[in-house]
Specification:
The protein is mostly helical. Helix content is 54%, strand content 0%.
C-alpha cells in the first residue's frame, strides 16, 4: 500500500494526482505533435475539474500556466500563450504598506481624526462652530455603539479637547443628543423582519385554511 506521504509532492494539489501523472507522462512523449495533442487534452480535463476558473478572465491562459507549473517547466509544447518561467512564480510580492500612525481612541477610529484636522482649517464662524458640535455628537454616538455603558457629556467634552488639542471649541452648556436616543436610532435603522410578504398575518392565514377545510367537509357531507 502506498501512502500520499511516500509519493512525490504535488505542485498544485487542487488538480489531484491523476493530472500530475498525465503531465509526467506527457513529458516523456518523444513525438512533438503527439505531445502537443496530449497537452491540449490535459488542458480540457483541467478545465472540467475546476469550472470555477471559467469566471476568471482569460481562464485558458491560467490553465496553461498551471500546466507548465505542474511539469516544473520541463514540458516542451506549443502553447497559445507566452511560456512562463520559474522566476514568475518564485518572485516574492511587494510588501503592502500599512499605516503606522497611532489612533488615540480606537473606538472613534481614524476617520474622525481626519475630520477634526479638516475642521481646524475652517475660519472662525458659525460653520466651524456647528461642525465642532457635530463632531462632538458623533463622538458620543461612537462611544455608545462600542461601549455597553452610557456616557455623560462631560466625558465627551474632555475627550473632544484632547483629540482637537484644544484647537476646536464647543459650548459645553449645550447638551448633546441623549444616549438613549442614539441607541433607539441604531435600533430603528435595523431592517425589520417581514413575517408575511403577502400582506396578511399568520393568524388570518390560519383562519382562512380552517374555513376552507370546513367548507370542504360540508360539501362532502351526504344529503338526506
Amino acid at each position: 500500500m502506498e501512502y500520499n506521504t511516500q509519493l512525490p509532492k504535488l505542485e498544485i494539489p487542487e488538480y489531484g494526482r491523476n493530472i500530475q501523472v498525465m503531465i509526467d507522462h506527457c513529458i516523456t512523449i518523444e513525438d512533438r505533435e503527439e505531445r502537443n495533442k496530449c497537452a491540449r487534452a490535459i488542458i480540457q480535463i483541467m478545465g472540467q475539474l475546476n469550472p470555477h476558473l471559467r469566471d476568471i478572465a482569460d481562464f485558458t491562459h491560467k490553465l496553461w500556466d498551471h500546466l507548465f507549473l505542474i511539469s516544473k517547466f520541463k514540458l516542451d509544447v506549443d502553447s497559445p500563450y507566452p511560456r512562463p518561467n520559474a522566476e514568475t512564480f518564485t518572485t516574492k510580492p511587494k510588501n503592502v504598506p500599512y499605516p503606522a500612525t497611532k489612533i488615540r481612541y480606537k473606538h472613534y477610529g481614524k476617520t474622525i481624526e481626519r475630520i477634526i484636522d479638516a475642521a481646524k482649517t475652517y475660519e472662525e464662524g458659525p460653520e466651524k462652530k456647528e461642525l465642532s458640535r457635530l463632531i462632538a455628537n458623533h463622538l458620543k454616538k461612537s462611544y455608545v455603539n462600542w461601549n455597553k455603558d452610557s456616557v455623560t457629556d462631560d466625558v465627551i467634552f474632555k475627550q473632544f479637547k484632547e483629540m482637537t488639542n484644544n484647537e476646536l471649541h464647543i459650548d459645553e452648556n449645550s447638551a448633546l443628543t441623549h444616549a438613549n436616543e442614539l441607541k433607539n436610532k441604531n435600533h430603528n435603522n435595523q431592517t425589520p423582519i417581514t413575517v408575511n410578504a403577502g400582506g396578511g398575518n399568520n393568524k388570518n392565514r390560519h383562519k382562512n385554511k380552517k374555513n376552507k377545510f370546513k367548507h370542504r367537509n360540508n360539501n362532502n357531507r351526504p344529503t338526506s
